[in-house]
Amino acid sequence: MAIDAVAPNVTAPTTVSITVSCCGTSRTDNVQVSPAVPADTVAIQRAESRTSRHELRVQATSTNATATLTVFVTATNQMIGTLTGNGRGSFDGTLRFPVNPGNITVKSSAGGSASASVSTR
After folding, report:
1. What's the whole-model pTM score?
2. On the chain, which terminus has fewer CB atoms closer than 10 Å, C or N?
3. How confident is the model over 79-97, as pLDDT tens digits?
């Protein structure tokens, strides 16, 4: 039997008691509830297509320096590639892509994302 429960919003780790009763029997267990971790903030500084070279140059930042940032075509959600972390939340990459995708979305493994138009060079 599965039971769905909604945990309270907490600002610090908190122990919550859960009691389940059925058929004249009750059981209580304690569960540790942790605060939700907010998504990081992602920003795109450069999104530039070099169509003659089939390259897409992307520079982005994240408030989570250890995140993984991945680039997608916004319209189709097709993955283009992963950016390289340069420390202090700075990421960049020159990714192989045959055409200008028009608009890209950079998604972070820490939950944030940002979109930008791609210029042609």
Report:
1. 0.74
2. N
3. 999 999 999 999 999 999 9
